[in-house]
Structures are given as structure tokens and as C-alpha cells.
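Not sure how to ask, but would you mind making up any protein sequence you like and the C-alpha cells describing how it folds?
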Amino acid sequence: MSTDSDSALITAIASAAEPLNGASGDYDSLLTLIGDARFVLLGEASHGTHEFYHERTRITQRLIAEKGFNAVAVEADWPDAYRVNRHVRGLDDDADSEQALAGFKRFPSWMWRNTDVVAFVDWLRAFNRALPSPADAAGFYGLDLYSLFTSIGEILQYLDKVDPAAAQRARRRYACFDHFEANSQRYGYAAGFGLSPSCEDAVVAQLQELQKHAADDVRHDGVEASDALFHARQNARLVMNAEEYYRSMFHGRVSSWNLRDRHMMETLDALAQHLADTRGKPAKIVVWEHNSHIGDARATEVGRQGEWTVGQLARQRYGDETRLIGFTTCHGTVTAASDWDGRAERKRVRPALAGSYEDAFHRSGIGRFMLPFKVHNAATRALGKPRLERAIGVIYLPHAERQSHYFYASLPRQFDAVLHIDETRAVQPLEWTSHWETGEAPGTFPVGV
């Protein structure tokens, strides 16, 4: 039974919501809200929803074309994304965008190897090719830290070309990892519990040498050579942070979460500085990550438990030059797995729980809309009290949805604006199986939570 306060809330949402109908002017007011911000963080409420990818693409295209943004940084590993970066800037040998995305082999591959990402990469490459100067091209970069062994390979490949003696020193240092057979978690478990010596000193020493190499080396000039050196340094930083992350992951969620988001923020900072140094103008970067990373943790229950996020760190560092944009949905389908390293499944997303933000947005009766929070209106005030918010990652467990996928947050403090799409559908992986295509029938869901 609805109450007067419920009715007032729904009325406030409906009055402040700006409908999205697919027209070219959908995001005019969002670009006004963004203003002169240099860091625009675009979220998602799941890692497998077509509409989130599609709408982020539409917004990002306008930011690049109309506001001069020159980089897209995503929740992906640096070396895999850098292959895409070379493709969109016309520096690679990949035949097409799908081939350029071939580096994304680690679970969940569908997160970046899907039809929506291919379409965006195609657009970005075409946009860059039409620019009068290659120096103005917009790049594509990864912020995450899971690629410990791939990044080691990238460092060695770079040093083999520019400094074979340094490559041999790097091989001796990284030999510390050799007997773990490229299994990061196996290393983390052994080193974290004292079953094997830590490689910490070796990875720190390698990063320090590459940093000194960057300061001393005067043989390399030009943007492409500078980018190659930066790529190697970022991989070395990733190896150092990944080594610490894998050692910590068996000892507590908060510490490993914070290490990961700290690394992503450090990478964003380093990328912004590198782009400013090589392009001769301040960097303007769009970030694509999950809501749980780009929202301000201080507005959530996990923040009160000690977690921080990229969104919080970006606000603290860059202030009003940052905008955080969240995405929500009520129901539909999603591509997700049932367990870690599981196969991609098209799962039905249960309707939002009563009392959640998503449920309130659904009851507004507006299928697609943007709700700005930078302007303090009745909806901002009415939604300020913490409510349940849903987060679906790479795993979706509908039978345990309340425990696994909801947390309390204050949405107006977590984001500067939220885009709600009431019914959404699963993103289509490039490698999909008959199991994914068949999907999960609605009747298979348990009644209870």
C-alpha cells in the first residue's frame, strides 16, 4: 500500500526527471551539467547490460566531438586496452576492431569483447582518422591491475628493443614469479601466507629503474616513442601494485578493494599527466567503470566500512573538475555468470526490490530519464535519505539478490546525476554459446529472496 510520502517521492522524481527518447539532443542538459569538468566518470549498474554500454557511447561521442575529450579510460587491464589504443590511433596491424579486442581473454571476456564495444571502437578509429592531426587523436586506456604476467611480458618486449642489458636485469627480477606458472592467485596465496618469498623488492626495483630510465633517456623523442616508454612504465607500476594486491586478497575485502581502486586512481593521474605533457594541453578523460567504482564511497554503507572508490578519490583530488554519472535499471536481462570463471549466461534480472531507488524510479512511470543532483530540487531532497541500491557485477545470483546485490547509499551524494533505463537487455558477447542465446526462463527463478 502506498503512503502519502511515497506519492510525494514519485511526484518529485517525475517532476525533476528529464526523459530520454533517443533523440540527438538527449544529453544537452547533461553536457551543460558537465560544463568545464575534465574528468567525467560514467558508471553502470551491471557489467553485462547493452543499454549502459550504448548510452555511455552516445555521451562519450559527444564529449570527444564537442568538448575535446582526448581519452577513454576503462575498467580493464592496461596491456589489453593499450592494444585497442593503438588500433583507434591507427598504429597497429590488427585488421579490425574485433581483432584489436582479442587481448581480452581473461574472465569476464564479454565485458569488453561484445558488440557494443566493437561499435564504439569502430567509431573512435573513424573519428581519429578524420582529424587533421594525429596528435589530436583520442586514446583508449585500461585502469585495472589484474594483468600481472601479461604486463611483465610487455615490459620485457619493450626493453628487448631499446635496452637489451636492462631487459636481462628485468628478467632476473621477474624470475621470482617463474614457478607460479603465470597464476597470479597462486602467487598471492603462497606469498601472502609466507609459503614462498615475496617478490615485492624485485618489482619495486624494476619500476624504479624504468622511472630513472624515463628521466635519463634522451634518445627517444616524439609522441609515439614517449607513449611506448609510458606504456612500459605503466606496466611496471601495474606489476608492482598487482603483486601487493594478490598478496592482500586472501586477508580481507576492504584492503584488496582499496589497493585496486588506489591503483586505478594512480593510473588515471599518470595518464592525465602524460597526455598533458605530450599533447601540450590539459587532458580531458572519460572513465567507464561500474557504479561501485565511480560513485563516491562516502555516500554508501561500504564507505562507512572503510572502502574508498575511484569516484571519491577523483572528487577529492580534482574537485569540481570531476562529474560522477551513475546508471540504474529495474528489470530485464543481463549477461553474467553464476560463479567465478563461469560461462556467460543471459539471465533475467528480477524486478527491483520494494523500497529501493530502482523501484522508486520504476514507479515514476518514465521509462528512460536523467535525474540531475547538482541542482537541488524536490527529488534531490526526497532521495537523500539512504535507500537500497542494486549492483550486479560479473556474477548475478537472483536467488540471493538482497544479500548479494544490494547495499544502502544516498544517491544524490554518490553521483552528480543518474540515468535510469527501466527495462534493459543483456549485452551480446562476441563469443556466445547456445546456452547464452537460450537464456534463462522467468519461471526458473525462486519466489523467495
Observations:
- Residues 145-264+275-283 form one domain.
- The longest strand covers residues 71-77.
